[in-house]
Amino acid sequence: FETMGGKMIRGSILGQGDMDIWEILKTIKHSDFDGYISLEFEGMEPCEQGTEIGLAMARAILDKV
Description:
mainly alpha, single chain
């Protein structure tokens, strides 16, 4: 993918990209939100592997924040 600034990027497993997932999940956890959280994976790894790693990371972060 190419950003508006011309930087080439690719998808990544949750927690391995540029976004501050710790802060995002902390904000969600400590808000009044009571719905589902959806994860999307578009990395280069096999889909099942990337999804399993990302889900495990999300659960681990949510347990710690």
